[in-house]
Structures are given as structure tokens and as C-alpha cells.
Amino acid sequence: MAEAVAAGSPRSPSSHAATYRRLVGARVRSQWQYRTSFVLHVAGQFVAGFFDFVAIAVIFDRVHALDGWQVEEVLFLYGTSQLAFGIGDVFVSPVERAADHVRLGTFDQLLVRPLGPLFQLVTGEFELRRVGRLVQGLVVFVAAVVALPVEWTAGRVVMTAATVAGGVVIFSSAWVLTSSIAFWAVATQELANSVTYGGGFLTQYPVDIFGAAIRRLLLVVPMAFVSYVPATWVLGRDDVYGLPSWCAFASPAVALAFALVARFVWRSGIRHYRSTGS
Amino acid sequence: MSVAWHVARRSCAQWSTYRAATFAGAFTNTVFGFLRVHVLLAALDARPGLAGFDARDAATFAFVTQGLLAVVFEQGYGELAPRIRTGDVVTDLYRPVDLQLWYLASDLGRASFAVVFRGLPPTIVGALAFGITVPDDPLTWCAFAVSVVLAITISFGVRFLAALSGFWLLDVRGVQQLALMLTFLLAGMIVPLTFFPSALADVARALPFAGIVQLPMEIFLGHHPGLADLAAILGRQAAWALVMLVVSRWVAHRAMRKVVVQGG
């Protein structure tokens, strides 16, 4: 019995991984068919991220520091945030398409299949082109790590890795959380962008530059923990909040808590879902 | 011409039915206004008087461009490209109306709805939260209105060209995204062109994209007082609008000769 579970039950983790590989593999093969279009699309994603970087480069061409943050330090924020955003964008952002499925009435199909709807969305709507943005984030991240005048002790390396991992979870949760809006209100997908893309944009900069109200908001919608709070520890800076020093290590816990909230809202949304019936 | 007027009116009416989406879009544009204004203010704080901007100009730039965004660009990538891919474009070609005129009229109709319901909300919120500079004479307002219409036309030319590439490439979302991102940067949508290093700024100003955001904003901010200056800016935009229309028309003409209608 135990063997049967390990080998073939649709619920076992290994079979989920195999299903994931097969479904995503099929998507990748189909997207690879229009080759020119695919290459241009990856380039488009790369450039989309790159232009946020250009904005920072243009500003630092004119100023020496933003609220006391040097260019390498801001690029470290940018790199960690965009790497995390890029990974979340590739693997979890396809959940956004839930809105289209609800509107078209095809969400019913996801509910009757023997896999979770979230799993079906992140595989069935997988877009390999999003790798372009991820690569761009990775390039800046590596450049910032090399350029920073800090000694890369084991502690800093582990902390940086944990920051990126926490950031991935926070962005991914933001996608799931905001995509759940579709179960209550149609055609409001743009609202989600203010949290997801807004978060992707603002975490490139030190929280210091924002006004007091936005700063407080960033502790609740925990974008401050994507890059800024843990980075203050890596860079040996004070954070603008005056948080106790252990908070710098709190990103993974905050990310986990945010993920639980997202999971709760997503599940409530599915319970609340009523088919358009068409 | 009356057909174009009707197409524009219907397009405006069509967009007016997307109420939830309009609200959501205006909300998100406004949120980005708040984020972008702080980036500009931090830069000005580090270097007062950068590019001749004060804090009020920065707020004006951040929020008014967030309003313009939905006017001079459209939500998504438009109807034409998917119609080329699926072959539905044939229906457009059957019509006794010019393809370019049809889509331009439709885009102007869309923009006229967006001016009020997407343009005003970020502007008003920005004015209340930060205070913005608003032109105080009718001449500047008139020039700004003309400038925005020309901006939509230039932007339409870029988007129409990107969509037309579908006659050769079929799936053009990549081209469209690349074109849009390049336009954003060179139009001054991400940071004002006047913040760029001067050599780059000069190049960017000489290109058509500057006419989509940067030049209308300069008029709005009152950087070009006097009839002669305003006329020069509008003339430059008009010239680029004409060039974009002629070029995209020629490309559309070439594309028509390439169309193969699969029967069925």
C-alpha cells in the first residue's frame, strides 16, 4: 500500500514533480515553435526590467546618493528584489490568469480535474519568456554583489540567499493573494498590478525615500522585507524604521506568514466562486 | 470622414462600458504616481534644481504622466495584432473604409474616454496630496490639448507598426512589448528626458518618441512660454505624427500585398 502511494498516487510529491515537468515541458515546447517571436519576447522581458535599471543609472549619474544610499547599495536592493521578482514571475505569476478563467467560465474545468487549480494555473499558463526578466535581475544582482565593498562572510552569503528566497515567497504570495480578487470582482485585474508590479518597482529603492504613510504600509504588505530590511544588516546600515536588530532576520518568517494569508484568501475565494454558467 | 467620427464615438462608448477595469486602472496608475514622485523627490533632494525641477514640478511630472499613460498608450496591445494572427483582419479589409483610418479613429475614441476617466484621477489625487503646477493661461491649455492629440497620433503610429509586423511574424507580442518599452524610455515616461546625460537627452529629443510624453509635459509645466516656442514644439510633434502615419501607411500597403487568405 505504501509503495503504491509512492509510485502512483496523484497526491505524492514525486508524482507532482513529474506532472509539473510534463505540463511545463509541453508549454515550453509549444512556445518554442514560433522561434523569432519567442526570442523577441524574451528580449522584451529583459528590456522591461533593464529600463527600471536605466532609471536608477540615470538618477545616479546626476546624484551621489539617494537618502544616503550609494549606487552599489541601491543596486544590491535592486538585484535582490528583481531576482526574487523574476523567479516569482516565472513560476507563480501565471496564477494571474485565474481572472480570465473566471470571466470566460473555464475555471470550472480547473475545479473538476484531479489537481489543485493553483497547480494547474502555474503549469498550464507557464510562459518561458519571463525568464528574460529573471536573467536581467540576476545580472544586476551579481554585479552588485561584486561591486559592494563588503566582506562576503558566510553569514552575509546565507543572509543574502535567505533574502532572495523570502522575496520569492513574498512576491509569489502577492500574486496569489491579488489574483484571488477575481473570485469576488470581475475585470479588476489591474488592481493586482499595484501590489505586484508596484512591489517590484518600489523594492528597488530604499524605503527611506518614501513618505511615512507608505513606509508603514510596506510593513503590513510586507514589501519592506523583500530587500530593504534584510539588506540593512548585510550592508551594515540602520533602517529607517528603527526596528530591533533581530527583525533583519525575520524575512523568511514574514514571508511564510504572508504565504499563509495568501493561501487562506485563495481558498476562501475558491469556496466563494460561482460559475458564470455560460 | 463621418465614418471615422462614428468609429471614434463607438470606440469611446465601448471603453465606457469597462467600468471596473477603468477604476482598477486609474487606481493602479495613481499608486505608481505615489511611488514615482518619491523617486523624483529623492533625486531632487540630493541635487536641488536638477533639470530645472522643483518639488512641485516633480509631483506634476509624476502624476500627470501617470494620467497621460492610459491616454497615449492603450491597455494591452490592441485588437489588430490578434486579428492578423487569427485571420479576422480579412473582415477589416472587406470594409469600404481605410484600415489605418479605422484603427486611428478607434484609438482616438478610446483616448477621448481615457482623458477623463484615466487621466484626471491620478492628476487630481496628485494635486491634493502634493500640489501640482497647472497652466494658468488658456493659450497653454489649448497648446497642451493639441499636443496630447499629436502625442496619441505618434504613439498610434508606433503601435500600428508593431501590430503590422504580424503580417510577417504572426505572433508579435514580443515585438509589441519591445516597442512599448523602448517608447516608454525614449518618451520620458520612466524618467524625464531632461534627467538624462545631455548627449543622450539630445538624441532622445530628436526622436519621435519625445513627442509622446516629454514634449506635452514640457508644455504643461510651462517650460515653453510664448506663442513662438509653443508653435515650434507643436510643429515638431505634427511633423513626427505625419511621418509615422505615412510610414505605417506604406507598411500597411506592403502588408496587404502579402495577405494570403486561407479559405474556409
Task: Show the helix and strand layout.
The complex is a heterodimer of chains A (278) and B (264).
Chain A: H1 2-8, H2 13-31, H3 35-62, H4 71-91, H5 98-104, H6 107-112, H7 117-124, H8 131-147, H9 154-179, H10 189-202, H11 212-220, H12 228-235, H13 251-272
Helix pairs in contact in A: 3-4, 3-8, 4-8, 4-9, 9-10, 9-12, 9-13
Chain B: H1 2-16, H2 19-46, H3 55-72, H4 80-86, H5 89-94, H6 99-129, H7 138-164, H8 166-169, H9 173-187, H10 198-206, H11 214-220, H12 227-256
Query: How many distinct beta strands of chain B?
Result: 0
Oligomer: heterodimer
Distance between the termini of chain A: 42 Å
Greatest interface and its participating residue counts: A-B, 45 and 41 residues
Compute the CA-based radius of gyration of chain A: 20 Å
Give the helices and strands of chain B as they follow along the chain.
Answer: HHHHHHHHHHHH
**Shape annotation of chain A:** globular
Q: Which structural class fits the helix and strand makeup of chain A?
A: mainly alpha
Mean pLDDT of chain A: 91
Based on DSSP secondary structure assignment, what is the total number of beta strands of chain A?
Answer: 0
Number of helices of chain B: 12
Radius of gyration of chain B using CA atoms only: 19 Å
Characterization of the model:
- The complex is a heterodimer of chains A (278) and B (264).
- Chain A is an all-alpha fold.
- In chain A, 69% of the residues lie in helices and 0% in strands.
- Chain A has one domain (13-272).
- Chain A is globular.
- Helices cover 75% and strands 0% of the residues of chain B.
- The longest helix of chain B is centred in the middle third of the chain and has 31 residues, at 99-129.
